[in-house]
Known about the structure:
Elements: E1 6-10, H1 14-26, E2 30-34, H2 37-46, E3 51-55, H3 63-73, E4 78-83, H4 88-96, E5 101-104, H5 109-142, H6 150-162, E6 169-172, H7 179-188, E7 197-201, H8 210-215, H9 232-235, E8 240-244, H10 251-263, E9 265-266, E10 275-276, E11 280-285, H11 289-294, H12 300-306, E12 309-312, H13 323-338, E13 344-345, H14 347-355, H15 361-375, E14 380-381, H16 388-391, H17 408-437, H18 442-449, H19 453-462
Amino acid sequence: MEEKVKVLVIDDERTVCISCKKILEDAGYSVDMEMSGLKGAEKAINGDYDIVLLDLKLKDTSGLDVLERIRNKRLDVSIIIITGYATIQTSIEAIKKGAFDYVPKPFSPDELLISVHKAIEDRNLRKENERLKTEIEKMKKSTKIIYRSKVMEDVMNQILKIAPTDFTVTIYGESGTGKELIAHAIHQNSNRSNGPFIGVDLSSLVPTLIESELFGHIKGAFTGATYDRPGYFVMANGGTLFLDEISNTSLELQGKLLRAIETKRIRPVGSEREVEIDVRIVAATNKDLTQLIEKGLFREDLFYRLNVIPIHLPPLRERPEDIPILAMYFLSIAQEELKTRVRAFSNEAMAKLLSYKFPGNVRELRNMIERIAATTDSEIVRLVDLPEEIRNSGCEGKPVTNHIPQTAEELQEVKRRLREAIYSQVEKDFVINALNRAGWNVTKASELVGMLRPNFHALMRKYGIKTRDEGDK
């Protein structure tokens, strides 16, 4: 059972305290009151409160002093200023001293609840942000592979088991799933980790020069061979040679690769002498090699040499629980490189990312995050900041997951995200429905639903909803 959010109201007017307490307790919050500013500050500092509602004008001390005292000791508490003595200057000063929001008296229940709800959302985002950063730092110490899902944990356990051996490995996975990172992880955890890691994308090599690139050549072997050149096999000696897109090779080259793996010897182009090699082969492909064998496009004997240890890397759509931690990881990298303010994702934006299929897998996610970080001015990535193809994909606001939670902790995380996504979608639908009924006139829409216009407009901004009439803002 989830703990209630705890709120402390500090106000020397008893009627205000009681009013706030009733409004918030009716909404499901746990509320305490304190009419002394000095006692309230001590209570806020020593208690386990999530939110403090603080009046600026108190009888025994200045509300700004109380704000400063709480903020100096408790950075995790969200402080909302409530006062009847509202001026632009005091508002700016309170925000500068660390207040989260400012609600002038007299306020309606809706105004108070919206401000508190915003504070809770901000607190949850900060907590999630810190939790993801902690997870990321732990993973970065051992490997650059960032994950949270059970299926990727199984892949990593498999890597740790087979890495110390010298068996050849073939990594299967769609484009963009991170096959080279897996190959790196195998190398880093092997007895060859002090040796070189050489990665070769076979599909990018010129067909007429591919043999020379892999096995090297001697001076004069062909036109343009003006000096002896070692190939990738020699360059990887004592380490690991990663052959990406192994399926994009001719049958002739496959025969030479087979011989190199079996004999641990290669013959540079144009040479009559063979060279001994000591490399571990890790191959990768985004195709089914058994199907290519049936079509006569891949040698069966090479397949058995390469496929000693097969690793199947799942696409991102089959491990959506990795999306939040990957997105946060890429965002932190972009934030550091671009020196931007963006630091987290709104619940609506993350729900939409969770529902998207990501045909380009992790590579697509990374490219998208980098683009967003470079273009948004906000601290929080909102739904409106996402690319149009992602915003318009699937069922709006309904996170899709094919993964069944494996632990109670995973189940709670999935339930929390689903609740947030569903609440957000209902709230957004509520706003759009009201606007449709009012002919997209904000004033009429707010009156129809019984909300103050500024509060209704705040909900519109939250979901990136703009009026059709640019004059009605």
